[in-house]
Design goal:
The protein is mainly alpha-helical. About 50% of the residues lie in helices and about 5% in strands. It has seven helices and two strands, in the order αααββαααα.
């Protein structure tokens, strides 16, 4: 797994907007996330645990490969190719299409690259911006779906709703109760 040849210096702009080289920190953070997961391997057959074990020896080469991909703006097609697996849902008849949940297994090295890119995007948006809106929960550090649900619940069960006004505007009391009930089911 040799990294592709380096991009010639003449084609590379070395200004503040240039893409920073891959760092060991980027790779270590991405590999650490692999440690926490026990997932099935993708088409290459290499589970995440193998990448964790090999990261010491392969780290510099993998870092060079990821840096070259960033410099060229390329995400290798092979890393986008997945293996479709159907997982049967319990209690459903085997001959029913709704009895199966499709899962696409991807190569772990592609997931590593995605994590490096996602971390860099989050750092850029938080650091040099433009930062994301306060109400943005996806792709934000220390924010989750649970946080978003809690914010909606706070808006719909707060003082404004208790007084009969607030975020529902001209919605009828019956509709307000239905919406609150739906939120409680979350």
């Amino acid at each position: 797994m040799a990294p592709p040849p380096a991009v010639p210096e003449a084609d590379h702009q070395d200004d503040d907007d240039g893409i920073p080289e891959g760092t060991g920190v980027d790779l270590r953070v991405a590999v650490r996330r692999l440690k926490a997961r026990n997932t099935a391997p993708g088409p290459d057959g290499l589970p995440g645990k193998a990448w964790v074990l090999a990261s010491e020896a392969l780290g510099p080469r993998l870092e060079g490969l990821l840096s070259a991909c960033l410099e060229r703006g390329q995400f290798p097609l092979r890393w986008k190719t997945g293996k479709l697996v159907l997982i049967r849902k319990p209690g459903r008849p085997a001959d029913s299409p709704s009895a199966y949940r499709p899962v696409v297994l991807l190569d772990e090295v592609g997931k590593l690259f995605e994590r490096v890119i996602a971390n860099r995007l989050a750092e850029h948006l938080a650091g040099t911006g433009p930062d994301l809106a306060e109400h943005q929960f996806g792709f934000r550090k220390r924010r989750s779906t649970v946080d978003a649900i809690m914010r909606v619940r706070a808006l719909t069960t707060g003082d404004a709703v208790a007084r009969g006004g607030g975020c529902f505007g001209g919605v009828s009391r019956h509709r307000q109760r239905l919406q609150l009930h739906a939120l409680e089911l979350l």
